[in-house]
Amino acid sequence: MATPHEPKQDRSRATRQRLLGATIDCLAEMGWAAATVAVVAERAGVSRGAAQHHFPTREDLITGALEYMFDTRMDQAKAEARTVADVAEGVGRTEAVVAGLVESYTSPLFKAALQVWTHAAADPVLRERIVPLEAKFGRVAHRRAVEALGVDDSDPVAHHLVQATLDLARGLGLADVLTDDSARRKEIVQQWSATLHSALTTPR
What we know:
The chain has nine helices and no strands. By secondary structure, it is mainly alpha-helical. Helices cover 77% and strands 0% of the residues.
């Protein structure tokens, strides 16, 4: 938390980050309806006026939170990539990559984003702001997966297999929203990883 001795710019940045973090927590834990500017401001420990100084509208706050989620997820992906790099080449590495992708869709970040997507489906104004962001996020997520798996994305088969992996990960994340699906998810990750590795390494 910022202190009075910190430069104004640093305090402003810290306040903004607390608001974004509080928004994600509120969305993930309490849902869309509860994630109002007032509730987020209280959770972040700042005044509503200060919150609206950084994010004049709720849509601004939600959009900012999605961008923050994306940046956070990319930082996590970089850390996971370093961990995967220590795993020997082979199906074990493929499984480590797939498991990391799947787990990213069972995190509070995904649950928060899901609240936004669901609301945006019925709100044309919010949807107009969210769709371009999601398209950007999807492209970057695909590129990260390609890099982690070490495949040639110009190969149509490899391209579609990577996208299928991301779609599978998202679906498993949705299955985990209401109940703990970890046991079944682990089995599917193992099976798909073996299938994926075989498909990616088979000469064409």
